[in-house]
Amino acid sequence: MGRQLQPVQEMYREAKGGDRRALGRLLTRIERGGPPADEIGELAHVDAGSAHVIGITGAPGSGKSTLTGRLVELLRDNDVRPAVLAVDPSSPLTGGAILGDRIRMEGTPSTEPSGTRSTNDVFIRSMATRGHSGGLAVAVPQAVRLFDAVGYDPIIIETVGVGQVEVDVVGAADTAVVVMTPGMGDAVQANKAGLLEVADVFVVNKADRPGADDVRRDLDLMLDLSHVTGQEDGSGYRPPIVMCSAIDGDGTTDVWQAVADHLEILGKLGRRHIRRRHRIRAEIRATLNQALDSRIDDLIYSEVGERLVSDAQNASRSPSSAAAAVLDHLLGRR
């Protein structure tokens, strides 16, 4: 007979009291999804709502993990209690997350189960996408809410790459930081990926290398030509471009100051609640999409669905007609 699982409410109370292992177990249940994750979300929602959520993204190799580690070190030295949610890719074959980047984070010597590492003041958790961005879109905000509820602030979400998943996750943060490096064509890549539209702070990392000034110039030019400098909403805000060398720690303080300044601007303009409303709307949509995906799969592989697939296969109806019939069944119209 297997070991009985600890009740969610009990684990939540322990996590609120500072028990890191309880927090790690709660995060594992959030990542797995289902009713336990929903229960955790219900509990945390009441206590959350004050933490500054920061998204950090950029191309692989741009130094995001090193920069995140430096920021964590800076915050810890200033008696701030940050948490980091590091979103890793997963192998579509094995489902295993690539957790190597976490090793490069500074100031995180101790290790806890399930990809979790922490010190007395810092909690770092790696969360794998497992090839399913829909699940990630639900799990990330629930994990952020849990961190917030148990007292971590700020909460840093670090993503890998500049794909649509990363843009969606980072774009939902209070402050989105985009990291670039010289010699990688990052400014052009960011423009194509849509990161110019979501970035609140640009960081040119490895600023001691040749070409760093060119990256800054390209970014300035793109911002001059774009509509993301606050003109549409009347705020006049233009994302700052901060030069740093994370591996040496040079410029880390400037990066954090730019992040803090952005939060202050959000507060002065009364726009922080708009960011949070956007985040909640995106989470509701992702939750609905996840539920609908499950229902659609059930229908497609049911007797009715298999018959519709066969009809489309033998050309007695088109795939679009079969899809319409599935939708009718889903909505209870037949």
Helix coverage percent? 40-55%
Structure annotation, total helices: 13
Major sheet: arrangement of strands = 3-4-5-2-6-1-7-8-9
In round numbers, the mean pLDDT is: 81
Distance between the termini: 45 Å
What ranges have pLDDT less than 50 throughout 5 or more consecutive residues? 91-104, 106-114
Record field, number of beta strands: 9
Oligomer: single chain
In terms of DSSP E residues, the strand content is 5-15%
Rg from alpha-carbon coordinates? 22 Å
Q: Biggest β-sheet: count, sense, barrel?
A: 9 strands, mixed
Report what the structure shows.
Helix content is 51%, strand content 12%. The protein starts with 7 loop residues before the first helix and ends with a helix. It has a nine-stranded mixed β-sheet, with helices on both faces. Strand 8 (201-204), helix 9 (212-225) and strand 9 (241-243) form a beta-alpha-beta unit. It has helices spanning 8-16, 20-32, 35-47, 64-77, 133-149, 164-171, 186-193, 195-198, 212-225, 252-269, 272-300, 303-313, 319-330; strands spanning 53-58, 83-88, 111-112, 116-118, 123-128, 155-159, 175-180, 201-204, 241-243. The protein has 13 helices and nine strands. It has 334 residues and is an alpha/beta fold. The longest helix has 29 residues, at 272-300.
